[in-house]
Write a structure and sequence with these properties.
The chain has 305 residues and is mainly alpha-helical. The chain has a single domain, classed as Orthogonal Bundle (Farnesyl Diphosphate Synthase), CATH 1.10.600.10. The chain has 16 helices and two strands. Strand 1 and strand 2 form a beta hairpin. Helix 3 runs antiparallel to helix 4, helix 3 packs antiparallel against helix 16 and helix 10 runs antiparallel to helix 11. The longest helix has 28 residues. It is globular and about 50 Å long. 47% of the residues are buried. The chain binds geranylgeranyl diphosphate. Geranylgeranyl diphosphate binds next to helix 4, helix 8 and helix 11. The site of geranylgeranyl diphosphate (GRG) has 16 residues, from helix 4, helix 8 and helix 11.
Length: 305
């Protein structure tokens, strides 16, 4: 590994450790009477995830010269939202999965009703966390927190992740057009990744030009991430990816390899990785964070889980 790549990897690990530590105390106080809810929420939230979205938010904030400490509540909120979406996605009514992050899924451990409520709880807790941080900034300083919270709300909402999820479910077993497939990916997976990057940049008060460059980075990265995920599902092993491999084909899912073929999927993945790297370099932000964001795009291209 080159010196530059080593520094970028260390940056990712530094921020991931920060996120992991903050997630421990990020949930609101839950009444002791509702202890099963808390147990189920913590089970999913603290399971070993990659923490890609919160780290991206923090890196985007650092890239635009912002304060990492101030961005942490938003980073934790994005991870809570991501976890809620995973819990609900795994439910029998959706993808019906038994394994997530190498562990039994929430509904397998706690039952369906508790899993649904744990997802609801994480989504609500995310907004509590962000609005609490915004309120603490006071009326004078609330502009940036408001913009960041708005990005995240829109990204996970009905014109973002949820729109993608419904189209994904409705596409099962059907032949979908390339355009429809891109819509599904850009929304189901891409919207929250895009929101995380834009929220981090907004917290740092990024200029419109920088925001546009980082948005281009996030959009390319989001699609690349999903294509890599599709390839892993098709070619990876359950024990490596921590979730059941081969499920997409079995469920007749709309995926990049299924619609375009494996070779074309690989070529698109490389092209998107290069596009993401170029966009973040052209943003002209803080050098170490820029390097870490570029390295992250390259790592996701070859990821094994
Ligand atoms: C239920 C509203 C709702 C949305 C669900 C998350 C999601 C939307 C669907 C999950 C289906 C899926 C496996 C999509 C592929 C991309 C993806 C989101 C993978 C999981 O994210 P990682 O790999 O997971 O970052 P970790 O566990 O590392 O955090």
């Amino acid at each position: 590994m080159s010196e530059r790549a080593e520094a970028a990897a260390a940056d990712f690990e530094r921020l991931k450790a920060l996120v992991d530590a903050h997630l421990e105390t990020a949930l609101p106080e839950i009444p002791k009477e509702a202890w099963t809810l808390e147990e189920a929420m913590r089970y999913s939230l603290l399971a070993p995830g990659k923490r890609l979205r919160p780290v991206l938010l923090l890196l985007a904030c650092e890239c635009c010269g912002g304060e990492t400490e101030e961005a942490l509540p938003y980073a934790c909120a994005v991870e809570m939202i991501h976890c809620y979406s995973l819990i609900h996605d795994d439910l029998p009514a959706m993808d019906d999965d038994d394994l997530r992050r190498g562990r039994p899924t929430s509904h397998r451990v706690f039952g369906e009703a508790t899993a649904i409520l744990a997802g609801d709880g994480l989504l609500s807790a995310a907004f509590e966390r962000m609005l609490g941080a915004g309120a603490a900034a006071g009326a004078q300083g609330a502009g940036r927190p408001m913009r960041a919270a708005y990005e995240i709300a829109a990204g996970c909402g009905c014109a973002g992740m949820i729109a993608g999820q419904i189209c994904d479910i409705e596409a099962e077993g059907l032949t979908v057009s390339a355009g429809r497939l891109d819509f599904i990916h850009a929304h189901k997976t891409g919207a929250l990744i895009r929101a995380a990057v834009r929220a981090g940049a907004q917290l740092a008060g990024a200029s419109e030009e920088m925001l546009a460059q980082l948005t281009a980075y996030a959009e390319a990265l989001g699609l690349a991430f999903q294509i890599a995920d599709d390839l892993l599902d098709a070619e990876g092993r359950t024990q490596d990816i921590g979730k059941t491999a081969g499920k997409d084909a079995a469920a007749g899912k709309a995926t990049w390899p299924a619609v375009h073929g494996t070779e074309a999927a690989r070529a698109r993945l490389s092209e998107l990785t290069a596009r993401a790297e170029k966009a973040v370099r052209e943003a002209g932000g803080e050098p170490a964070a820029t390097e870490a964001m570029a390295a992250l795009a390259r790592t996701l291209e070859t990821r094994k889980r």
